[in-house]
Structure to design on (344 residues):
């Protein structure tokens, strides 16, 4: 679709307003039941790094900020500097852990894909889709849709420990 | 928090596994009732650009991919090349429009912040938080939490046309 036809769709601004220069889609927040299970999934299975944690003991919750940060990237150690740096990059995942949910029986949170629907999924893109999906199988990850299931052969959906859908696509 | 203590938290991988090199947290998908209203909000109010649309008329839905792309960035016009480029960048917002929802009465989707909870919000960071919030007021945007309401004075929450919460923070 050429750019002209994209900007002619109803509602679309022809150009981003000057006042929005420097705006960054920084993060997406999901509530999770068992933070250890989620940190394991997002760091070990999906390669995120835990960049920052914030604890609110009075309100009984903690926040965990994760991102795909290369080993070469220096994460600032000064708290204020790290917070600014973290706020300025796209692709951050914020996990909210309400203390004690991990001791509840069964699922605690709603994945958004049954009624009432809303949020659908997050997506991680990978250099080698076949290799990534084969590794997820080896690791015992739950699939919502395997790569070769259904009509769309170029994407898979796996599930995180809370059942949130994570789409897997290729960027090569 | 120094990096050592972050990687000592239960569940956290000490290093991202080599097999996850090149993984990118690419996008977050939200279902929207009225795509024209959402495109207006995300492009005009929040400065996203519409990068790609995909129509599935047989299944009666369309997908819209938006990102904060600077005017200097050349979005590839070749469809396959654009799709690869789009899959490789972080900070993409995917909006799903199920055709006809815009004619339903009242809200169609669930924002995740009342029962059943799950997804919480997306967040856009800005260079000048006071200026951004003043502009949102001028534009008649609905606030969930104004900058100076409550205890947290360094963040605001606005609502998109479906009622999804969008946190606004500063990256300066």
């Amino acid at each position: 679709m050429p750019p002209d036809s994209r900007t002619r769709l109803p509602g679309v601004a022809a150009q981003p307003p000057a006042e929005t220069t420097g705006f960054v889609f920084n993060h997406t927040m999901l509530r999770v039941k068992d933070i250890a299970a989620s940190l394991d999934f997002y760091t070990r299975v999906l390669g995120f790094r835990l960049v920052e944690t914030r604890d609110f003991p009075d309100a009984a919750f903690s926040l965990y900020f994760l991102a795909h940060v290369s080993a070469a990237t220096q994460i600032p150690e000064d708290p204020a500097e790290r917070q600014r740096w973290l706020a300025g990059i796209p692709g951050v995942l914020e996990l909210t852990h309400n203390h004690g949910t991990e001791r509840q029986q069964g699922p605690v949170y709603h994945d958004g894909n049954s009624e009432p629907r809303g949020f659908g999924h997050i997506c991680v893109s990978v250099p080698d889709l076949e290799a990534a999906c084969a590794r997820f199988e080896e690791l015992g990850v739950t699939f919502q849709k395997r790569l070769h299931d259904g009509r769309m052969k170029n994407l898979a959906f796996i599930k995180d420990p809370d059942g949130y859908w994570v789409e897997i696509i290729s960027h090569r």
Observations:
- The beta strands of chain B are 24-32, 49-56, 61-67, 92-98, 119-126, 143-145, 156-159, 165-170.
- Chain B has a mean pLDDT of 95.
- Helices of chain B lie at 3-7, 35-45, 79-88, 129-138.
- Chain B has four helices and eight strands.
